[in-house]
Amino acid sequence: MNNGEGEADRTGAYVLGHSGGEIERLKAQARLIDPITRRILNEAGVVPGMRVLDVGSGAGDVAFLAADLVGPDGEVVGVDRASTAVDAARARAGERSLRNVRFLAGDPAEMTFERPFDAVIGRYVLQFQKDPARMLRRLADRARPGGLVVFHELDWGGPSSFPPAPTYDRCRRWGVETLRAHGTETRMGSKLHSTFVEAGLSPPSMRLEAPIGGGEKAADMLRLVSSLIATLLPEIERLGVATGVEIDVDTLFDRMQRESAEGSNVFFGHLQIGAWSRT
Ligand SMILES: C[S@@+](CC[C@H](N)C(=O)[O-])C[C@H]1O[C@@H](n2cnc3c(N)ncnc32)[C@H](O)[C@@H]1O
Fold first, then answer.
1. Is the dihedral of CA 154, 160, 166, 167 positive or negative?
2. Which of 18, 80, 259, 277 has the most CB atoms around its CB within 10 Å?
3. Coil, helix or strand for 190?
């Protein structure tokens, strides 16, 4: 997969890339997941006036959420190592005329900042790290003493259907096998507790939510799943997890919707797990 960053070693490289389609997928994902992230940040204690570091800011959605929470007296710095993502996030911040958020390119665990942050936050980023505890330890150093560390990660233990919808369940298998082959931690949500402790932080407070729905109400979830499989398709095929013919990505969403309309299935999405503690 070409992720635009010239990473030669595919295994361990960021598997989702930053194509235009992937940036759009991140934005669609945010529409479904942002309310959950907002509840996590609220409960963790992100409040007006704070200076916040958003790690792995992607298309900018978590930074925009944090910018809303910290208000005009606060400040959010979003950092992503992919310059294509940073460009997209900057353009969106410009469209929204946001003055309290800015984006930088780099790995914040390896960067120095002019001042410590009141909160270091991130969504769906630890799962892609070779050593998440090491990264978290370094990131916690970017927070002031007593500052917040808040991460929202997903967990592939969640997606399932009842009664079973075969195409949806197959998507889960394709996703898990492909991500694992790339070194992505598909149980990162459940590992947040041990990762915080290993990073030297106090045992975190945690929150669990998950998307769930059936019939028409499941459409957004199914669309998101099919767009994730579309993003992963070249790697799914390259790794021999499934063939393009078997997946037939152009009809994947419609097939899942048809199964959903025919049955009375309920679809369970990824577990969305938040963890936070203070330095
Ligand atoms: C799945 S996206 C999530 C984006 C955003 N946090 C959201 O939830 O919409 C993960 C992002 O983390 C970035 N990333 C992964 N590892 C990183 C690192 N070590 N430093 C900075 N960015 C990183 C990737 O480039 C990608 O844009």
1. negative
2. 80
3. helix
pLDDT along the chain (279 residues), means of 10: 32 74 84 95 98 97 97 98 95 95 97 96 97 98 98 96 95 97 96 98 98 92 93 95 97 93 90 97
- Any ligand 1 atom below 6 A from CB of 62: yes
Structure-token pair, residue 254:
């419609």
CA distances from 81 to 72, 99, 106, 114, 120 (A): 26, 22, 4, 19, 16
CA 242 to centroid of ligand 1, rounded, Å? 26
- The answer to whether the beta carbons of residues 57 and 25 sit under 8 Å apart is no
Looking up residue 35, the CATH number of its domain turns out to be 3.40.50.150
Could you give the number of structural domains in the chain? 1
Ligand 1 within 6 A of 151 CB?
no
Which domain, by its residues, includes 217?
20-278
Minimum CA distance residue for ligand 1 atom 14: 56
Residue whose tokens read 């930053």: 18
266 alpha carbon to ligand 1 midpoint, in Å?
Answer: 30
Measuring CA to CA, which residue among 231, 223, 232 is closest to residue 180?
232
